Amino acid sequence: MSDRTLLLVEDDPQDEFFTLRALKRAGVCNRIDVVRDGQQALDYLFCRGDFSSRSGSALPAVVLLDIGLPKISGLDVLSRLREEASTRHVPVVILTSSDEPTDLVRSYQNGANSFVRKPVQFAEFARTVARLGVYWLATNEPCAGQ
């Protein structure tokens, strides 16, 4: 399980801290890369800009993607990932505090594999993130070539 990378796309430093803490407490020892806006997420995934030296064949096992991101929204990031053959099958979990029904619908329309609302209470947030990490990094079988 530890050779599979998780990409966290989160602009809120507190949510980033709590997510990383919850994954560590759950025993997730995988590499976790963090980017803080939609442009960085696309640059990471398509090996551009600051990430041009990253190997394009080393796609993350899962992307935890917030919706409300600076520069490019999470939904636009998701849409762009699904347009490209090289990233079309990368699992994307929308992890958001949004309770807008349209965000849920648009996430699935744009190709999200899962939509999870961030619980307000830390204990429930930690349990939710831990389950996501264990499922996507240890339980889920990735698409061939991932």
Task: Explain how this protein is built.
The protein is an alpha/beta fold. It has a single domain (6-138), classed as Rossmann fold (3-Layer(aba) Sandwich), CATH 3.40.50. The chain is built from 5 helices and 5 strands, in the order βαβαβαβαβα. α2 (38-45) runs parallel beside α3 (74-83). The longest helix is centred in the C-terminal third of the chain and has 18 residues, at 122-139. The chain starts with 5 loop residues before the first strand and ends in a 7-residue tail after the last helix. The mean pLDDT is 91.
Strand order of the largest sheet: 2-1-3-4-5
Number of helices: 5
Roughly how much helix do the residues carry, as a percent range?
Answer: 25-40%
Largest sheet: 5 strands, parallel
The H-and-E topology, N to C, reads as EHEHEHEHEH
**CATH class value:** Alpha Beta
Beta-strand content bin:
5-15%
CATH-assigned fold name:
Rossmann fold
Output the structural class. Answer: alpha/beta
- Counted up, domains total 1
**Multimeric organization:** single chain
Radius of gyration: 14 Å
What would a concise description of this structure say?
The chain has 146 residues and is an alpha/beta fold. Helix content is 40%, strand content 14%.
List keywords for this structure.
about 150 residues, Rossmann fold, 5 helices, 5 strands
Q: What is the topology?
A:
Elements: E1 6-9, H1 13-25, E2 32-35, H2 38-45, E3 62-65, H3 74-83, E4 92-96, H4 101-109, E5 114-117, H5 122-139
Parallel strand pairs: 1-2, 1-3, 3-4, 4-5
Helix pairs in contact: 1-5, 2-3
